[in-house]
Amino acid sequence: MDLPRSSGVLLHPTSLPSGKLDGEAYRFVDWLAAAGQSWWQVLPLGPPDEFRSPYRSPSAFAASPQLLARPDARVSGGEVEDFVARHPYWTGSWASFAGGQAIADQVRFEREWGALRSYAAERGVRLIGDVPIYVSDEGADLGGWPELFARGEVAGAPPDALSASGQRWGNPLYDWPVHRATGYRWWSERFRRVFELVDLCRVDHFRGFVSYWAIPARNTTAKKGRWRPGPGAELFHAVAHELGDLPVIAEDLGHITPAVHRLRDELGLPGIVVLLWAFRAGRRNPHRLENHRVNSVAYTSTHDTDTAVGWFEGLRPRQRAATGLDPGEPQWGLIELAYASPASLAIVPAQDVLGLGSDSRMNRPGRTDGNWSWRLERGALTPVLARRLCALAARNGRVLR
């Protein structure tokens, strides 16, 4: 996939001042256009779990009614019937799980999101979504298609730089032989739904399609899991056969092996680099600017890391000096590096544009409390910030309009 040289901002709709798809969402689009940005990246759009995480949604297909600006808007029976007719694969299981208004809420979301997406497109702003690799252990997917999931083990990640004990997510794992026998129909339908809502999507935990960390269900931590083989390119080829070329970004972070990079490159997918990690030792560190690939996406930070300012403040004085970043505005140093990167696409979380600290980070992996709650202050993204970001984007050839 060829990405045009461009840039964007990461801000989940729940982080808008209202947390809704109301006028604040449209004002954010206007700000993005004024800032020369071509992309608005969001996190998964499904209903969040009880901890507000969008990565453990009760549905891989349904959108979150919590985002609706007009949750009581009238929906006719004909509109419900039409929506079901266009989405026969998953609406039955979702309605059985979520109740009588479930499909009406999806109609409302389609109206509001479709209007917002059209408004953004008219201003040169496209949308990047996010596809979690796994589904909830308490959701409609496991209930609707139980044969597609394995028993006795759950999903997670091994110990790494983000968590010393690993991450025990608890999601059900896939029974890949069964998926293969169905021609990966569930995955084709899942991606079909994603591309109804966004122009490009980030596939979370891409390495799990090569091999994944399986944890005995009885274990309380992720330390004693084991690697098991995933479906590899076969899944993506099956989906592409149904849907055509897949506009997908491979989230290739974490415990990455050469096999993960081979799959990414075989499929022609852009990977991800994170500037917070560019200052680590090792000439082969893929996050160092000189190692960035054109077919990649450069982030200053991500929803799973500290903010740029929080990260910088956590460094020792000698480490800070070694970065060469301006101590007064370290976030703008990282933004400049991201924009100067050979990577086709540069993405900056809104918190980094604003220069916010650790108390504004979105998620702390391995913790269930205190995450996913950050909100943008109304008016914080000012015209001055838009002009500064636009000038930087123009200077680095990232303005498409």
Q: Which structural class fits the helix and strand makeup?
A: alpha/beta
> What fraction strand?
15-25%
Q: Which regions are unreliable across 5 or more consecutive residues at pLDDT < 50?
A: none
- Helix and strand sequence: EHEHHHEHEEHHEEEHEHEEHHHEHH
Say what the CATH topology is. TIM Barrel
Q: Helical content, roughly?
A: 25-40%
Q: Count the beta strands.
A: 12
- Strand order, sheet with most strands: 9-6-3-2-1-12-11-10
Sheet with most strands:
8 strands, parallel
Shape: globular
* CATH level 1 class label: Alpha Beta
Characteristic key phrases:
alpha/beta, single chain, 14 helices, four-stranded antiparallel sheet
Helices and strands, with pairings:
Layout: E1 6-10, H1 23-34, E2 39-41, H2 77-86, H3 91-98, H4 102-122, E3 126-131, H5 140-144, E4 149-157, E5 167-174, H6 176-181, H7 185-197, E6 200-203, E7 211-216, E8 226-229, H8 233-243, E9 248-250, H9 258-266, E10 271-274, E11 296-299, H10 308-313, H11 317-323, H12 330-340, E12 345-349, H13 350-354, H14 383-395
Helix pairs in contact: 2-4, 7-8
Describe the structure.
This protein has helices spanning 23-34, 77-86, 91-98, 102-122, 140-144, 176-181, 185-197, 233-243, 258-266, 308-313, 317-323, 330-340, 350-354, 383-395; strands at residues 6-10, 39-41, 126-131, 149-157, 167-174, 200-203, 211-216, 226-229, 248-250, 271-274, 296-299, 345-349. The chain is built from 14 helices and twelve strands. It has a single domain, classed as TIM Barrel. The strands form two sheets. The chain has an eight-stranded parallel sheet. Strand 1 (6-10), helix 1 and strand 2 form a beta-alpha-beta unit. It is of the alpha/beta class and 401 residues long.
